[in-house]
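for ur thesis appendix - F-box domain-containing protein. copy paste whatever u need, i formatted it the way the template wanted (i think)
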Amino acid sequence: MEDRLQWKAQAKSVDSDWSESAGTPIHCTEPELISAENCACRGEVRESLHHLRAALRQAPRNAKLLVRAANVFLQLGYNEKALRVLRSAERCASSHALQVVIEQVKFNARQPDVGNSAWCTDSALTRFPVETMLRVFAYLDLPSLHAAIGVCQKWRKWGCAHGPLWHTIRIGRDTPSHSHDRGRDTLSHSHDKERVKRQLALLSLYLRRGKQYVRHVTLGTPVADSEACRRHMKSVSLHSLSVTCYYTYAQTWVDVAIKMSTLCALTINTTGAKTHPWLAPPLRLDHCQCRPLKLLALHGTPPLHIDPPTLRLCVRLEHFSYSAPTCAAALREVRRRCAVPIQTIVHAAQDTLQELLLDGDAIWGVDTFLETPSIPQFGQARFPHLHRLQAPLKCMVLHALPDVALSTLMPNLHTLSLQVSLPRTPGGTSAALLQFASAVGPTTRHATLRITRDSSTWLVKALLQVWTQLTSLKIVWDDPVSMETPMLESVHDTMQRPLTGALLVRILTPGAFDPHDTILCPALESLQFGNEASIRGREIAELVAIRVMLAQCCSVATARDALQRKKLASEPDLQWPLATRFTTLDLSGCRELQPDLLPFLKQHCHVVWSAELAEQARHALRPSVSARDRLSTHYR
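the 3d part is after this line
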């Protein structure tokens, strides 16, 4: 370091022997150089580099400036940058004295400073083989890869030239302003056109870098709505394609996707629909050239048209996801036209299906699959690999299977989402639902119950009794229910009432109704509520306190006695714990929770709740009239 300071002083002493080169006078860049040197002495690397960049831009061909900048680079530990600057200084040096000083500074730049960690790190990174760095880059996602190749010119050169690194392309969704004139979709504003142009340029750049190695593409709006984007996609061979587009382009993107012979996964999300997607013509797969898909996700689109090409495309599905909003579920003819294709796809892929996710009010409407005709079956439906089910049982035609071993139909199911409602058809019972829950009870670990006005408390309690291995439970109220609690009501009458959040908490609380009742869900660790207004907080505090005592090997009677004494400490009277304590309580959907009880809850588990979330839940509260009744009135 002393040698560097000596050569720096010597460089300043020969100013009179140096002739000025063409460019900006030295005094114009002197403040920037002084600031860079001062920042380097204080160890402020980023600020020093900023001032150096400004100085070099003002006088790129000034030899004196370049030598002083090289000394600053040496002080910061960027020896390679110093050598590049000195090579530029050699080309514009006009005196022998200057050439001597440059050679001396270059000699210092070639000597590693052991005490300078920046030099050690830089030299170690530059000694990595190219193959090793490319293997490291291969573990990075696209944003991290952009940051990595911006470290130095070598890394950028390696990264941009190596096509396999750019196997995944993501052009994020950006909301444009659309104007609709007689069915034609146009980008109305100039900034929308500029946004499309910018995204197309980025897509073209990624495709040039990835070349034939591009395998996964995710496109958002507005670039996905342009014809140029679809032309780009016709020239690549993809394994997965995910598109978020305007709803009128759904069929167009399906036509593009089915021409890719290597495609395995297809996801289409639509936006801006003015009418319900079930009122539009179904998506057709004419001239399909791709092999059977493993993943198919359609959100806000019409169902697929059921024909031999569609069945061949879906026969090996492992993941099927479909969602549609509310609006058309009350139209009987629409249900018959759109619910049957969903059932047909599910049963066509029953041998390979692992995840089935159906969402939206149009799917979960209690009448959606009520009158759909039975699809032709050549044998008993069986889903041997299904481990996640979020769909009405009527969609899978499991509610009508009499006297079968349901546990053999789904032996690996561990995540389940059900809508709990009493059948409203003549002669309907809840026996099929309870039989199904009992069959999958030993393997079910995560459950979501969707509650309607037809959900009786006794039915939910019966379901929770058979799920002894349940670790997480989420309750979502699809329909608002009455929260009036009659005084001095018997337990039998209470069980016949529609389920509320407060009533569910009482059911889960050991000994709330009867000290000898079976403890429901003893392995439960996570509890979440959605769209709930009856919970105030005291019942939750009692549930958490009782579970804490049971986890400490206390009996139910001992735990309740300690709760009455307002102490959560008591001598254990059992050898084994009767239940586990809660680790997570998600109360973000509870609109009327009292915040003063949160400190107690947070002492014993992680609580998800905030005033902002509660306010959002209040604003998202549905009208008192259910979607089904509102639609039936609208179409009457």
